Amino acid sequence: MADSSDSVSIDMEALSLGGQEHLVETTYGPVCVAVCGDPDKPALITYPDIALNYMFCFQGLLFCPEASSLLLHNFCIYHISPLGHELGAPLISVDTPLLSADDLADQIVEVLNFFGLGAVMCMGVTAGAYILTLFAMKYRQRVLGLILVSPLCQAPSWSEWLCNKVMSNLLYYYGTCGVVKELLIKRYFSKEVRGNGQLPESDIVQECRRLLCERQSTNVWRFLEAINGRGDLSEGLRKLQCRTLIFIGENSAYHSEAVHMTTKLDRRYSALVEVQGSGSLVSEEQPQAMVIPMEYFLMGYGLYRPTQSVSPRSPLSPTRISPELLSPENMGLKLKPIKTRLAL
Predict the structure, then answer these.
(1) Secretion signal: which residues (predicted)?
(2) Of the candidates 149, 192, 119, 137, which has an alpha carbon nearest to the alpha carbon of residue 287?
């Protein structure tokens, strides 16, 4: 993997496997963590959406050369899988208590302690973004910044709660049946890649269907139950002092949720990027759209692309940056959503 020089060498085969996997025992059960990169570098932790794992949620982003060089040059990435979501995960016993969203957030602290990590950068998608936001609110000293893709921050609306409840019952009694797959595919992707009568499904959707067939349905049910019982974080968002970068697909079902979250965050430390022609899973559907905003975002921490003469081992301390550099304008982002269109 990459060293600390100004160039970065990426082993794509190792990257595709996600690096070395560790099974971390926590108070809330074992959790699988895949470590990718040089552990001497600052830590970036990731958390996927429901029914997905890190390889599907972030592989498109990390296979994008500009994004991988930016992230792997500056970070060691710790991919956290929700309980029972890792590849080849066994069926969780029915006697195992259900975990709440708070339990999942508390579990992250034990993972950080296991690896001896202090404050970390966080990247999450939808349900994973909610867990990391909750973690940042409960453990402010352990979070340097948040990169959130189609995040949740409010309690479920009646329509979302009902949809999740239907999906939850189907998962519990019938497994990952066709209806569940369709609901999840619609959750992740825009109509353009889902296909229709005239256009076939894209390769990425077909690959997602194969992945969903491999999921242990009751393990997915557990994570869905935790997210469907989540609380509203809106009132506590203003107190977050870490910088936050939010990506939302123009066609995401959670577009209004991301906009609401942006209005509740301190505008001095947050920015919203709207990606045109994308669904919720921007990191897979249009990962190139994330590169430039992330690059400007990380510049605020003194982190640059490998072509820059900057040591990736330099401390990630926002307190060393003048307050002016923490504004969205100086992050290179406008206060109104940036619309980035990429050809599919």
Answers:
(1) none
(2) 149
Q: How many CB atoms lie within 10 A of CB 325?
A: 15
Sheet holding 120-125, edge to edge: 20-26, 29-36, 76-80, 43-47, 120-125, 143-149, 243-249, 270-276, 338-341
Residue 167: φ, ψ to 5°:
-65, -40
Residue 2 structure tokens? 């990459």
Instruction: Give the pTM.
Output: 0.85
Residue-by-residue pLDDT tens, the chain, 344 positions = 334 333 333 344 344 445 789 999 999 999 999 999 999 999 999 999 999 999 899 989 999 999 999 999 999 999 999 988 988 888 998 888 999 999 999 999 999 999 999 999 999 999 999 999 999 999 999 999 999 999 999 999 999 999 999 999 999 999 999 999 999 999 999 998 998 767 788 999 999 999 999 889 999 999 999 999 999 999 999 889 899 999 999 999 999 999 999 999 998 899 999 999 999 999 999 999 999 999 999 999 998 877 643 444 433 433 333 344 344 444 444 434 444 444 33
Residue 47's φ and ψ, nearest 5 degrees, are: -145, 125
